UniProtKB/TrEMBL annotation:
Catalytic reaction annotation: [protein]-peptidylproline (omega=180) = [protein]-peptidylproline (omega=0)
Superkingdom to which the source organism belongs: Bacteria
Family annotation (InterPro entries): PPIase_dom_sf (IPR046357), PPIase_FKBP_dom (IPR001179), Trig_fac (IPR005215), Trigger_fac_C (IPR008880), Trigger_fac_C_sf (IPR037041), Trigger_fac_ribosome-bd_bac (IPR008881), Trigger_fac_ribosome-bd_sf (IPR036611), Trigger_fact/SurA_dom_sf (IPR027304)
Protein name as catalogued: Trigger factor
UniProt free text on domains: Consists of 3 domains; the N-terminus binds the ribosome, the middle domain has PPIase activity, while the C-terminus has intrinsic chaperone activity on its own.
Signal peptide: none
Originating species: Roseibium porphyridii
Location of the PPIase FKBP-type domain: 167-246
Entry keywords, A to Z: Cell cycle, Cell division, Chaperone, Cytoplasm, Isomerase, Rotamase
An annotated Gene Ontology molecular function: peptidyl-prolyl cis-trans isomerase activity
E.C. designation(s): 5.2.1.8
Length: 449
């Protein structure tokens, strides 16, 4: 194997690799010799099939396999001998005009490989990084408010005689039609609706005020122009409604019995769970804010050339999401007071930041022996699988057989572990804030992202 460097410019590399036809022929002979000892072909005794006959039958297939393995082995060896780290899998350029000659063993294997190398940079002493961690102290009043909201959502209703009023719960069957034709999702046999709650299409609930059990009504409404289902947005619809029951709201007594009705041991147990949920919610926001500060600090310290193809790949992901969001929200660049060129330049900067910080975190993790355990990856896989009820086995097999997809589960776990490692060494100080202040900090971060 002869390796010739044909380009070394910044992070770009191009190598020309030549492998003599004789080396390929020797590999083919070894392949055929091994095949001869195993081949079981009708008309020949085991191990007695002539090589010429084997080559005629399997020679092309064998050479294709040899070429594929040789290219893979030589490219890996070339990079290792140069002590370089490709940012992505090298691209191979095999001249098509020589392909038949190479397959026939009449020409040397000569190809180009191009790749970007990962940049070299020094890791800053992040032990000196100062981070302010905003912490919300959960007041008992906040817990009580949440418990009261739970009670409100679990208000008992008792069947009543007479007309329905705002606040009453109506149980009904209904069938929605547009231009006289039923539409998908517009029917229910035992739908329940609290009048005045604003759960249904505007105008629907108002027309049920005064209805009694047994009444049949035609409720005419129009779907809002911004209704999520595009095929219904702005359309006029008529609902055939049969009122089955009218029930008046009672008052939930917040006590141990109420908590037991929710499947808990006591009211105190309910409050503990609610407090934990609130702490978890604000804990996630605090984590988000702390991580953003840490990444901002790192971003200030690093400025180095990025592998172009890696950057292009990240930008494509970012830009595809931008286009999907704009299409879904029916927005244009003019609506955002910008142009496509200006927007691309802005999102290119976001992609640059992501790639740069990704390389920094990866380097920190590698140099400090941080790894994702099989147990952590397995847990992430099962969490992902549970997001697709009814398709668990298919999703599980997809990730198990797709290394790139599996890597997409590993990456965020690895990043969080590196962040945790850095935060243990950084100077982190707590600052008590209100929930409104924390929400604003996080919202500002998301706006600047």
């Amino acid at each position: 194997m002869q390796v010739t460097e044909t380009l070394s410019e910044g992070l770009k590399r191009e190598l020309k690799i030549d492998i003599p036809a004789g080396d390929l022929a020797a590999k083919l002979e070894d392949y055929m010799a091994d095949l001869k000892s195993k081949a079981n072909i009708k008309g020949f005794r085991p191990g007695k099939v002539p090589l010429g006959h084997l080559k005629k039958m399997y020679g092309r297939q064998a050479m294709a396999e040899i070429l594929s393995n040789t290219i893979q082995e030589t490219t890996q060896k070339a990079v290792e001998e140069r002590s370089e780290r490709p940012a992505l899998t090298p691209e191979i350029d095999l001249p098509e005009e020589d392909a038949e000659k190479i397959m026939a063993g009449d020409a040397d294997l000569s190809f180009k490989m191009t790749y970007d190398v990962l940049p070299d940079f020094d890791i800053v002493d992040f032990a000196g990084i100062e981070i302010e961690r905003p912490v919300v102290e959960i007041e008992q009043g906040e817990v009580d408010e949440q418990v009261a909201e739970i009670a409100k959502n679990n208000t008992p209703f008792d069947t009543k005689e007479g007309a329905a009023e705002n606040g009453d719960r109506v149980t009904m069957s209904y069938l929605g039609k547009i231009d006289g034709e039923p539409f998908e999702g517009g029917a229910d046999e035992n739908g329940q609706l609290v009048l005045g709650s604003g759960q249904f299409i505007p105008g629907f609930e108002d027309q049920l005020v005064g209805a009694k059990a047994g009444d049949e009504k035609v409720v005419e409404v129009s779907f809002p122009e911004d209704y999520p289902a595009a095929h219904l947005a702005g359309k006029a619809a008529a609902f055939d409604v049969v009122v089955k029951e009218v029930a008046a709201p009672g008052e939930a007594t917040i006590d141990d019995e109420f908590a037991k009705g929710l499947g808990l041991e006591s009211l105190e147990n309910l409050k503990e769970i609610v407090r934990g949920q609130i702490e978890g919610q604000f804990g996630q926001m605090t984590r988000q804010r702390v991580k953003r500060q840490l990444l901002d600090k790192l971003d200030e310290h690093y400025s180095f050339e990025l592998p172009e193809k890696l950057l292009d790949s990240e930008f494509d992901v970012v830009w595809r999401q931008v286009e999907e969001d704009m299409k879904r929200n029916e927005k244009t660049f003019e609506d955002e007071d910008t142009t496509e060129e200006e927007a691309k330049a802005e999102y290119r900067k976001i992609a640059e930041r992501r790639v740069r910080l990704g390389l920094v975190l990866s380097e920190i993790g590698e140099k400090n022996g941080i790894q994702v355990t099989d147990e952590e990856l397995q847990r992430a896989l099962y969490d992902r699988v549970r997001q697709f009820p009814g398709q668990e086995q298919q999703v599980f097999e997809f990730y198990k057989n797709n290394q790139q997809a599996l890597a997409s589960l590993r990456a965020p776990i690895y990043e969080e572990k590196v962040v945790d490692y850095m935060l243990e060494l950084a100077k982190v100080s707590d600052k008590t804030v209100t929930k409104e202040e924390l929400e604003k900090l996080v919202a500002d971060d998301e706006e600047d992202a």
